[in-house]
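quick one
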Amino acid sequence: MPQLIPPGSTLGVLGSGQLGRMFAIAARRLGYRVHVLSPDDDTPTGQVADLEIRASYDDLDAIAAFARGVSVVTFEFENVPAATTAAAEKFAPVRPGGNVLHVSQNRLREKTFLKEAGIPVTPFLPVRSAADLADGVLHFGVPSILKTADWGYDGKGQVRIESLEDAAKVWRQFVGKECILEQFVGFAAELSVIGVRGLDGSFVSYGPIRNSHANHILDVSVMPAGVSEKVARRAVEITREIFSRLEVVGVLCVEFFLDKNDELLVNELAPRPHNSGHLTIDACTTCQFEQQVRSVCGLPLGSPRQHRPGAMANLLGDLWNGSPPNWQQALALADVKLHLYGKAEPRPGRKMGHLTALADTPHEAAERVIVARTALASS
Ligand code: AMP
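structure w/ adenosine monophosphate:
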């Protein structure tokens, strides 16, 4: 029998952004206490947690003390150092486990693992020198995309290469870094599937969700994605396969490109709830954050059933533009929900919150959420 961590226990989360905040809200609704550790204070998660600990992830004494005070440790970002999870694991289970983090922290390791598991990925080559890069660009042609293997998110650490001469110039910014060169995929759509696996091996999923990006940052997500039954089934099948190979306990998002031939290619794994899944809070019986709580605590997973088509639009700091957005305008719209993350400083590109709209069709939901966001910018 898997060990149950019952409501009333204390859960630990590493990282203190909006994902931790929504996890903590779901945990508290289920009667848990939440401790959060990160290098900051007055954070989105800390504001709703029972205890906010300010410490560096490298302070292993602080990590050990944190882990001693909780029944399980989870995280809201994938770049948690391996030494941190190892220190925590001496006192409390870390879910998903260190193996999942190890694979997903490095794009080369991640894509190599997927390829070896027979899962279709964007064609890639390792790049460690200017010569590797030139060979790679000749192999894939242009454009191709150079990414650092470590620490990349929201398009950070990646450059599109348009020519061989370009490659030589671009390499100067990457010297000494382990990189990956990817073929450019002229995709028809970007999709994600969010999976959840319990301690007993049970599995549920959301999606596929259709995602569009602006400046490499997720802009709008819509579920259902409006893809064929065959593509939807295959995306879930691939997700399930990844979960069982990695023995994930918790939530993990698989990001896909759907190419012009209706073939799915995995772009990336995120071993935590995902921005594209925020709409599950308002559109589904059980949201991705409650599933994170249930799975890491050994509870039965909840129903992922979607009761209405939904769309989510991110609210970036750019919307503030000197004065707060017009909240009244957006909140006056029926079937629109506002979520704000408690961040004081609205910097450009910073995720400050999101809107979710529900409607009778995915298309209407997408239109409605854009109307609501536009209303926020009105005076
Ligand atoms: P990533 O950080 O890998 O998720 O990339 C951020 C965004 O850049 C993706 O969501 C895509 O829109 C785009 N992108 C990344 N890799 C590729 C690729 N190989 N081909 C085409 N577009 C890409």
